[in-house]
Amino acid sequence: MTELAINSASDMQAFGAALAQSAQPHDLLLLKGDLGAGKTTLTQGFGRALGIKRPVKSPTFTLVREYREGKLPLFHMDFYRLEGDDLASIDLNDYLAEEGVVIIEWPQVIQADLPSNFLELVLTRVDDSWDSTKRLLELVPHGQRAAAWAENACRLYQEKQ
Question: Which Pfam family, any one of them, does this sequence belong to (predicted)?
Fold first, then answer.
């Protein structure tokens, strides 16, 4: 487990970009954190680094947003509003089998059904002031590939700071 201090939205996007630079097909990234913790901000930096030109938006109401125009396809999912058997409408295994990266916000509801190799990020506000962008980012790799991904992303991010 590794912890990083993130001091601004642009730092959060920069870390997302570092993750994208070291991403490989079939990588799975789980984002955990309260509302407003920076999950979508991180994903925006990830998408931009992949070369995605259109805005990366939160998929809260659509569950899945697909971005296929970058170096790797990006499948951005948000299960915050997922209820009951809503997951049946999403063939998660098909997305995981594609030659892209899957990012899931609010994965708690489906985590038991996921593969064993993934990178989990826990985003926590450092202080309670509404306008603060300071966050603590905890990287929890599950599996060898996830550990290498986390290590590479941290190195790339720190080189650019």
Answer: TsaE
63/79 Cα distance (integer angstroms): 6
Checking DSSP bridges between strand 101-105 and strand 28-33, what pairing results, if any? Answer: parallel
Alpha-carbon distance 86 to 1, whole Å? 32
Q: Residue 149: which CATH number?
A: 3.40.50.300
User: Up-side HSE of residue 122: CA atoms within 13 Å toward CB?
Assistant: 9
Tell me the whole-structure pTM to 2 decimals: 0.92
Instruction: Yes or no: say if 23 and 72 are a contact pair by the CB < 8 Å rule.
Output: yes
Q: Angle 9-21/39-50 helices, nearest 10 degrees? A: 50
DSSP code of residue 37 = S
Q: Which two tokens stand for residue 35?
A: 């509302």
Domain boundaries, position 147: 2-160
